[in-house]
């Protein structure tokens, strides 16, 4: 059966397999094959594979020793894994129940199956969940060597952004000062800290800040992370401690990051990179964000957009995009 695979030199095979496994991209339903010095690793989501890896289509044998959810239902089994919690998005109750049973009966390591019961809502960006099987909404998610405790009913977290987060993490150098204005449970600042950066994570969600502190301890970087609960605009306005402080700023609040640009400019040091996330119509993906950044910063800084690229599709004709923007005083 033709399957999307990462093709890699055999000598780098195990390192690459582990790298893909850390973000749940290895498709367990097919065998890994070696041929002519190449290793072919089946993947679950080709679009999420890091750009430096080669994705090809190849016939692979089905792994006979494992039962996968798709083997147990008569429709395409679509789901996301966050640790041992599986997330599905099914409107039909019968189909949702059948998929939950298939997931629990498969050979995947599954403790709980959750169905999305609402859109993301409110200031804390959480959603309602229907528990289809198992119990609880807590999970421990592993991503590129870091470990994150999460309660999906209390905090926002998307495993789909793992590759994008890793792209940013690889730019971080030891000794940098990084500020995540909407930090959540720490998927940016914790790997930043593992690379030797001094980090501040701010969030209005008290539960997210509690998990951020726990996750800093889990990953042994609590001495390099300061977690602050509150609206970042109030935090910066109430103290001069972080004014002109940051070498790197993450602004991952794509529906309204433009409302926080004046604060980002206050945080920025003499030479600072802002990772600015936005959601825009396909007719002008980057223009509104770039204009907003220039309006906020050009009175004090030279503004250079170093990277523009789509992260993922968000809705029909809309994209979640990112710009890496350097501010130089």
UniProtKB/TrEMBL annotation:
Superkingdom per UniProt: Archaea
Segments forming domain SAM-dependent methyltransferase TRM5/TYW2-type: 79-329
Sorted UniProt keywords: Cytoplasm, Methyltransferase, S-adenosyl-L-methionine, Transferase, tRNA processing
Recorded GO MF terms: tRNA methyltransferase activity
UniProt key word Repeat: no
SUPFAM superfamilies for this protein: S-adenosyl-L-methionine-dependent methyltransferases
One cellular component (GO) term of this entry: cytoplasm
Pfam families attached to this UniProt entry: TRM5-TYW2_MTfase, Trm5_N, TYW2_N_2
UniProt-listed GO biological process terms: tRNA N1-guanine methylation
Annotated protein name in UniProt: Methyltransferase
Organism, as annotated: Halomicrobium zhouii
């Amino acid at each position: 059966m033709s399957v999307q695979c990462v093709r890699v030199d055999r000598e780098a095979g195990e390192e690459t397999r582990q790298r893909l496994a850390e973000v749940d991209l290895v498709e367990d339903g097919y065998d890994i094959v070696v041929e002519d010095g190449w290793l072919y690793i089946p993947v679950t989501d080709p679009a999420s594979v890091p750009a430096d890896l080669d994705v090809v289509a190849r016939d692979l044998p089905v792994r006979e020793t494992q039962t996968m959810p798709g083997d147990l239902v008569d429709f395409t089994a679509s789901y996301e894994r966050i640790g041992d919690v599986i997330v599905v998005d099914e409107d039909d109750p019968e189909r949702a129940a059948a998929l939950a049973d298939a997931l629990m009966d498969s050979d995947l390591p599954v403790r709980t199956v959750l169905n999305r019961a609402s859109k993301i809502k409110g200031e804390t960006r959480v959603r309602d969940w229907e528990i289809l099987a198992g119990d609880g909404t807590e999970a421990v998610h592993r991503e590129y060597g870091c470990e994150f405790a999460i309660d999906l009913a209390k905090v926002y977290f998307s495993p789909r952004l793992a590759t994008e987060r890793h792209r940013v993490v690889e730019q971080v150098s030891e000794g940098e000062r990084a500020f995540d204005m909407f930090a959540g449970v720490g998927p940016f600042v914790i790997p930043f800290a593992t690379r030797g950066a001094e980090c501040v994570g701010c969030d209005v969600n008290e539960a997210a800040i509690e998990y951020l502190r726990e996750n800093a301890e889990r990953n042994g970087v609590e001495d390099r992370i300061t977690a602050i609960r509150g609206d970042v605009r109030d935090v910066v306005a109430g103290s001069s401690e972080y004014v002109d402080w940051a070498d790197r700023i993450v602004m991952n609040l794509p529906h309204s990051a433009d409302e926080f640009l004046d604060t980002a400019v206050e945080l920025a040091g003499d030479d600072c990179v802002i990772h600015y996330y936005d959601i825009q119509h396909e007719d002008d993906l980057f223009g509104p964000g770039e204009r907003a950044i220039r309006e906020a910063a050009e009175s004090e800084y030279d503004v250079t957009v170093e990277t523009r690229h789509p992260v993922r599709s968000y809705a029909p004709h809309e994209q979640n995009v990112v710009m890496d923007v350097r501010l130089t005083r």
